[in-house]
Amino acid sequence: MEPSNFFICCILLALGVVGAQESHERYNHLFVFGDSYADTGNLNKGLANSWRLPYGITFPGKPSGRFSDGRVLTDFIAKFLGLKSPIAHAQMKSGANKLRYGLNFAYGGSGVFDTVANVLPNMTTQIDFFQKLINDSIYTALDLHSSVVLVSLAGNDYASFLANGGTNQGLQSFIPRVINQLSINLKRIQKMGATKVIVTALQPLGCLPRITQSSSFHQCNATQNLAVNFHNLLLQQSVAKLNNETNSSTFFILDLYNSFTTVIEQKGNPKGKLKFDTPLKPCCMGISREYSCGSTDEKGAKLYTLCSDPKSAFFWDSSHPTQAGWKAVYTILKSSLAQFF
């Protein structure tokens, strides 16, 4: 290498330019498992409001099955890796050539256990879908070795537990069961060949609009967030154990709890480019508790209200961030992602 080229290369390395490019080129696919924080269109159109207006009005301009006005976590992780967002598994017939970016197996409303009357593929079943593609030689273990896996778990197991008669006291014994099953799933993904697995910490469930609505969107529920902290503590212990068992750094926790909390407390991201004056109030909400964003009556009349600018809101609906909200979270998480890769 010429001295001048060597000098330039050293500068680029110091700035992180060369490292970032090599990181992006190294990983060829993104495979996604989980729920609505990562789903890009797997749910049946008849089951979810995510296929109805006003979902998707920011991106791609129409409903796409994403639980937001635009992009979701999957899209931002793909962007970080320099990849196009992988298509939803349920839509893979729409173009086999698109499979080169990976596949998204996440289903909104799902968990590690069965939820919503057992009609949604839980995480084990989603991994089964992927295993079948490997068995059919659509993908190989080598493909997985040079890929990144995103695993999203946003709390549907707990919502289902409480909806089916579970109590807050009962959560203390149920949370370890959830983490244990998640660990089994993570270990299975690793044995299939994965070398880089991102798993989300639980966001502050007590700050979701469906919870803060009772305080007119002014206050988070501290009791729920205590349970979330217990989940995240067990997750940290589980991931550390998995990494130690294999003497690797395969698994990385994406800290949605602190990133969500930071955005909510600062009413935007730290750099100040995104501002949310009332961060706990959603942009889109049903006109009453029995309705939700996207609901209409039999004549098609809207049964929801919509804010004037989704970019001014952190939350899109009762549980999910706007595209601007996810962007604010991503800007906080980007440095830790860079360290992992």
Automatic annotation (TrEMBL):
GO-annotated biological processes: lipid catabolic process
CDD domains: SGNH_plant_lipase_like
Gene Ontology molecular function, alphabetical: hydrolase activity, acting on ester bonds
Hydrolase among keywords: yes
Highest taxon listed in the record's lineage: Eukaryota
A Pfam family assignment: Lipase_GDSL
Key words, A-Z: Hydrolase, Lipid degradation, Lipid metabolism, Signal
Protein name: SGNH hydrolase-type esterase domain-containing protein
Organism: Erythranthe guttata
